[in-house]
Amino acid sequence: MKSIRTRLILLVALAILVPTTLATTASYIYVRQQNIAEAERLSLSALQRGNSQISHYMEDVKRLSTSLYANRSLMNIMNAGADAELGESDSVVARSLLGLFLSRQDVEQIHFVILKGYSEYSVYNMKTSGRGKFDWLQETDYFRLMKQENGWLIDPEHVITAYNSRTMILDEKKVVSFRYRIDRVETSEPIGFLSVDIPVRVFEQQLQLFENSPDESLWLMNGNHLIAKTGTTLPVTNEEMTGTSGSMHVGSSFIVYVKTEKQGVPITLIKKIPYASVIKGANETAIILLVIGLVSLLLMIMAASLVALEITKPIKQLTANVWRVEQGDLSTRFVATTNDEIGLLNRQFQRMVHRMDRLIKREYRLALENRTNELRALQSQLNPHFLFNALQSIGTTTLQGDRKVAYRSITGLSQMMRYSMNNEQTIVTLKQEVDHLQGYMRLQQQRFPEKFRYIVDVPWHMNPIEVPKMILQPFAENYFKHAFRQQSDASENYLAYKIRTDGDQLIIHVENSGPVMSEMELETIDQNMRAHRVPEDRQTSGIGLHNINERLQIFYGERASMVLQSPKEGGFRIIIRIPIEQEEL
């Protein structure tokens, strides 16, 4: 069986874990999608700028071919052929080509072909080669240019090579060659070709401008042919990149591409980003949420443990006390340390146990006490001497012929005997108890006429108050047994009862005549009254006061008090305080 503490901690753990897991998962998915969309947007924007920049660069390179149309001398040579004016043609071509070479710093080599007469020239390392014979048209890209409508193409990344035997290449650089067809303006008939070799590093430097981190790579493609790159192997093919732009997740990489067509030449700019860096924000968000969730879980488990401890501690204490009550220990104290439902339950159990204790004492202990002290009660209440004297007094009254007085005496005696011997009734009204006392006093008055006086002062509205049975008459019996002086008259013998209420307490004040008692005598009577007696104890001295005190303790416990006094002018006084019960006892 799981304890409340364990179940509360599990409940709190689930209440934290489930929402945290759902929130972390939802946040991760949402942030990841946002990061991917943001990475795609930023990358596409960067690639479009890069594409625009590279396109402008290619247009600048193409202007080298269009600038030839402004050189009329060169155009005349191309229309007539280089053989028309041998000396002058070579110098014009050489100056024109060297000027083109020097106009840009990024030109590595220039190749110029005049179709009329198949003459060729090249410029490399600021030197123009002499005129050569061009006889390899069928083996070059120039043959393709003869058929193309746009009039230019790109020869992708390759190692630079000499165009003729008169040029010596000093180092093996990788270049990209731009081939241009030169047409006659009037008829669009091809009259020559121009090739411009640009180092690959020029394009690599432009691509590096669009790298946001060293982990990113870019590729510049012409169809399926590579122009330049900053990475290693491209993880996708041109066929996989559909549309003019887009993105895809390939392995551990995120690919973004932009396609354009520059005057019939397809150009593709591709960027590869590590997928981990794309979703880095999502991962950081997930980690932050996870850390917050774990910290919250730890704090909530600690809080739940403290709350559970505060809840289970009084419950365990209550359980232990209930077990003690179950074992028969009704003196257990249920201490309520809180003001919540547990504290209320403790207090309710305390009231219940006290009520059980009172009921047990009242029903069982009182019944046992009544049976064990039955003979003593009869001896103290209606002892044989009193019964003998009462009957003798009734007999004397009968002989004297006063039959009405004799009848009333017999009736009063029978009522007293019935009241005293009814052990089933332990709680009576104050009126019943006073009536029993009055019956006893009338019999004593018949026996001792004009020998004593008595007062019973009880307001009529107090008659319904319930009190334990036989707590008034024993005081009168003690008076006649110990304080009544038969030789004196009524002025010297008296017995007074005065009963009043003080808040929720009933005060019984009993006082009689008699000699002055010393403190030692009074203390001895008090000790005998409060001493515990076993059924085997045959002592009869002080049994009346003892029985009254015992009954009061059984019914009321510490809430009842019984004080003995001896006034300075003599006599004996008893003051009893008992609570007025508002419910049925």
Overview of the structural elements:
The chain has helices at 4-66, 72-80, 86-102, 142-147, 200-208, 275-278, 280-326, 341-372, 374-381, 384-399, 403-421, 430-447, 473-483, 519-530, 543-556, and strands at 109-114, 119-124, 127-128, 132-133, 152-159, 174-183, 190-199, 217-222, 225-229, 245-250, 253-262, 265-274, 427-429, 453-457, 466-468, 494-502, 505-512, 561-565, 572-579. With 585 residues, it is α+β, with helices and mostly antiparallel strands. The strands form four sheets. Strands 1, 2, 3, 4, 5, 6 and 7 form a seven-stranded antiparallel β-sheet that branches. Strand 16 and strand 17 form a beta hairpin. Helix 1 (4-66) packs antiparallel against helix 7 (280-326). The radius of gyration is 64 Å and the shape is rod-shaped.
SSE diagram, text form:
Elements: H1 4-66, H2 72-80, H3 86-102, E1 109-114, E2 119-124, E3 127-128, E4 132-133, H4 142-147, E5 152-159, E6 174-183, E7 190-199, H5 200-208, E8 217-222, E9 225-229, E10 245-250, E11 253-262, E12 265-274, H6 275-278, H7 280-326, H8 341-372, H9 374-381, H10 384-399, H11 403-421, E13 427-429, H12 430-447, E14 453-457, E15 466-468, H13 473-483, E16 494-502, E17 505-512, H14 519-530, H15 543-556, E18 561-565, E19 572-579
Parallel strand pairs: 14-16
Antiparallel strand pairs: 1-2, 1-7, 2-3, 2-4, 5-6, 6-7, 8-9, 8-12, 10-11, 11-12, 13-15, 16-17, 17-19, 18-19
